[in-house]
Specification:
The chain has a domain of about 45 residues. The chain is an all-alpha fold.
């Protein structure tokens, strides 16, 4: 006969083994970190991209 403690223990064991959502949570956390870094360093990133674009324009015009 099942006891309440036994039922809860089995449910907790199944929950502990279930890892379906772990990949999704990791992707969401990585995305949040990347967005935070972009927001934090947006001026530096903009300056870098602008400098690279200018450099490519100068090299393209010399060819």
């Amino acid at each position: 006969m099942w006891t309440v403690i036994g039922i809860v223990q089995k449910a907790l064991e199944r929950f502990h083994r279930d890892e379906e959502g772990v990949g999704t949570v990791e992707i969401i956390l990585i995305t949040i970190v990347v967005i935070g870094l972009v927001v934090l360093f947006k001026d530096s990133i903009y300056d870098l991209v602008e400098s690279l674009t200018e450099s490519m324009k100068n090299q393209a015009s010399s060819i």
